[in-house]
Design brief:
It is found in: Cytoplasm. There is one protein chain. The protein is built from 15 helices and 16 strands. By secondary structure, it is of the alpha/beta class. The strands form two sheets. Strands 1, 2, 3, 4, 5, 14, 15 and 16 form an eight-stranded mixed beta sheet that branches. The relative contact order is 0.18. The structure holds N-(iminomethyl)-L-glutamic acid and fe (iii) ion. The site of N-(iminomethyl)-L-glutamic acid has 13 residues, from helix 3.
């Protein structure tokens, strides 16, 4: 397949560039008036229209005149398997209740867990498939999915098996994360160690035996998992080769980031609450700072300090956090808009963070995340756009016109 007359071919980073830190995010290489050749599902070559090889004339060709071609969004943090939405909490939130108050009153994660317990694996697979297909149509071409609404051995395994089925059913790379440490089930409210022991002794060996997870996550937060509890779980995961990607500094700054860094986390995610120590630590670390502005937007908490992270030289990624409680949307176009509007990232920084750095946060940047020869042809063609900035500027609307995965048009 050949794509011609591309107004802007976005994210033409060198193949060796696997992530971007600090001021490197300012550079989003764009080839103007370009063509792109796809062969065997991979990016085979690209160049300027003035140098288009005439031997390509017979190929199946898409004329992208006036349009931009982007590498697919790489959404490195989602909880897209859930049994039911939580609109009842929406009303409570509008009435002024905070996320913590709703959770403490038995809403929140525990509410989702009791609903998931009742749902069959097939039902959950079907509803997750619809969400994932919608996300793909909005430009997402690689995704991470967490468990964490199971909170029993069987229910967590059920979630992870559904992720395995999604991996087999969808034409995009998918990474699975074990998030059994998402909240304490009510029966363990006064016996945290017993739940941790269950994760470590009963769940982890099964997850490892069936190779059901790529990463391990903990909601390290006041009222959820303490720093010590988080460390214990991450150490147990490490014995099975599971690297951490953790929920850190979402509601308070109490050392979660430092716990992640001490355990060589691939990413620490959220970071709505940071102090200078956190910014400095991330600026000197290979751990990726993944920001989730849809969550701040939806539950009315502070937006992460993206500018501070970038000026301290951190590797900043953007993801959707798609989940029923704090971010009921998997729309990465909106995430990129929010990053510009609320985090004050430039369109170039935001696109880099949502593509190449997102792929790095899933250890997939050899395969996806930029336009480079040999990478998967996972990309999208926009509607006609005046400039790159039009995409985040036109918030709430999708400029994605054609999705191409493994070199084939995705119809969903
Ligand atoms: O990333 N903070 C923890 N987990 C999710 C929310 C989960 C929920 O409310 O169901 C998050 O925001
Ligand atoms: Fe999350």
């Amino acid at each position: 397949m050949l794509i011609t007359n591309i107004k802007g071919l976005v994210g033409v980073h060198s193949k060796e560039t696997l992530s971007l830190r600090g001021s490197e995010l300012n550079q989003l290489p764009i080839l103007e008036n370009a063509w792109l050749l796809i062969e065997d599902g991979l990016i085979k070559d690209f160049g300027l229209m003035s140098n288009l090889n005439t031997q390509y004339a017979n190929l199946n060709t898409i004329n992208a005149e006036g349009r931009f071609v982007f590498p697919s969004w790489c959404d490195s943090h989602t909880h897209l398997i859930f049994a039911a939405p939580r609109e009842e909490e929406f009303a409570l939130k509008i009435a002024g209740k905070t996320y913590e108050e709703i959770a403490a009153a038995g809403g929140g994660i525990l509410n989702s867990a009791s609903k998931l317990l009742q749902a069959s694996e097939d039902e959950l697979f079907e509803s997750a498939s619809i969400r994932l297909s919608d996300m793909i149509k909005q430009g997402t071409g690689a995704v991470e999915i967490k468990s964490g609404y199971g909170l029993t051995v069987e229910s967590e395994l059920k979630m992870l098996r559904i992720i395995q089925r999604l991996k087999a059913a969808f034409p995009i790379p998918i990474k699975a994360t074990l998030l059994a440490a998402h909240a304490y089930p009510t029966e363990y409210k006064n016996n945290h160690q017993a739940y941790i022991d269950l994760i470590i002794n009963a769940l982890l060996p099964k997850v490892a035996a069936e190779s059901l997870a790529d990463y391990i996550d903990v909601f390290c937060e006041k009222g959820f998992f303490s720093n010590k509890e988080t460390a214990q779980i991450l150490e147990a995961g490490a014995k099975y080769g599971l690297k951490p990607k953790i929920h850190a500094n979402q509601l308070s700054s109490t050392g979660a980031v430092q716990i992640g860094l001490a355990h060589q986390a691939v990413s620490v995610d959220h970071l709505e609450e940071t102090d200078t120590d956190v910014l400095q630590a991330l600026g000197q670390s290979p751990t990726i700072a993944t920001l989730l502005p849809s969550c701040s937007f939806y539950i009315n908490i502070p937006f992460a300090n993206a500018k501070g992270l970038l000026s301290h030289n951190a590797i900043v990624a953007l993801a959707s956090d798609y989940n029923p409680g704090s971010a009921p949307s998997g729309n990465m176009n909106f995430v990129v808009s929010l990053a510009c509007i609320k985090l004050k990232m430039t369109p170039e920084q935001a696109v880099n963070a949502a593509t190449l750095n997102g792929s790095a946060a899933m250890q997939l940047s050899n395969e996806v995340g930029s336009i480079a020869i040999g990478k998967k042809a996972n990309l999208f063609i926009t509607r006609p756009m005046t400039s790159l900035a039009y995409l985040p500027y036109s918030f709430g609307q999708s400029q994605v016109e054609t999705v191409i995965l493994n070199g084939e048009i995705y119809h969903g």
